Amino acid sequence: MNLTSRRTLLTSVAAAAATLPLVNDLAGNGRTAVAAESVEFASNAALYSSADYEEGVHWMRRFRCGTPVTLNDYAKDPSATAPSNLLTSAPVRSTAILAPHGGGLEAGTTELCLAIAGYDRAEPGTEPRPDTSTPGAVQRDYWMFETLTASRPAPVKPLHVTATHCDDPAALAVCSHNLYAVSLHGYLPDDDPLVKRILVGGRDQRLIRNLASAFDRHGLNASLGVEVVVAGSDAELNGDDPANIVNRTRTGAGAQLETSTELRRAMFGTFGSGSGRRGTAGQASPTAPDAPAYWHGFVDAVREAVDRHERGLDSL
């Protein structure tokens, strides 16, 4: 989400994961969402009930709920057919991927959501198909709220319902069906609008650690000019409110990823339109020469972190 400064960004020397900086929003640090300043609807229900914004014209939802969960404990059942004859337990595939402000609100989060959830970048109004080009891609439950280009020139900012006020029935069903969740957001850092930064928050501390560590392993670090920051407990964008949709899971916790505009821009050959993003995700262009590294680094890191999390692992 686009943010306006009202306080000062402070960095704690105590990192929550892998020596990453810990951001705290104390008095005077204001990262107030620009969209929040023009909020017209206090909930999804209020938006959906409005006569001014119509589903299929101004906004849409796409979701999948009910992905089968198979539990095979090969370590305790040697008679089971284990992959590669390894007697190891299978991960519990139970993580939802969310994009509460997709489409034109926080550009790029729709495409990231579908990719991480294991689907192709289907255009609005079509059903995403499983990703068959990536070996081992796992299909997961997902939920997206998207503004449509058909809403232009009408403003899209009033369609921004904050994550803590999300009451969409499908979103609640998707989250309550899963043990864990990862939500994808976009923001414009007021301290440096050109910085490439990922702000990692939420209530699931183990998932936060796994994500932060995975970003570093996949090159989203100083080598690519990317800052990965773990949000402190006082940070406005720390995502730890129990009412936040990402924390409405069966465990009561999830992880929130706030990705700066410039990092999202760098992932796409063409960033300025939905069709451009769908067609050029991870493709280099004169304006985004390192798009493959940024796109695949992000998608692969989140997929890996989720997989480790589902296996019960921790990146301490």
Number of helices: 8
> What's the CATH H-level superfamily name?
Poly-gamma-glutamate hydrolase, zinc-binding motif
Number of domains: 1
- Strand composition percent: 15-25%
Largest pleated sheet: 9 strands, mixed
Percentage of residues assigned to helices: 10-25%
Mean pLDDT: 84
Instruction: Kindly report how far apart the N and C termini lie.
Output: 30 Å
- Rounded radius of gyration (Å): 19 Å
Low-confidence stretches: 1-38
CATH class: Alpha Beta
Number of strands: 11
Explain what you see.
By secondary structure, the protein is of the alpha/beta class. The chain has one domain: 3-Layer(aba) Sandwich (Aminopeptidase). It has helices at 34-37, 44-48, 109-116, 169-177, 205-217, 261-266, 274-280, 291-310, and strands at 3-5, 9-12, 22-25, 31-33, 59-64, 95-102, 142-147, 180-187, 196-202, 226-231, 255-260. The strands form 2 sheets. Strands 2-3-10-9-11-8-6-7-5 form a 9-stranded mixed beta sheet, sandwiched between helices. Strands 1-4 form a two-stranded antiparallel sheet. The longest helix is centred in the last third of the chain and has 20 residues, at 291-310. It starts with a strand and ends in a 6-residue tail after the last helix.
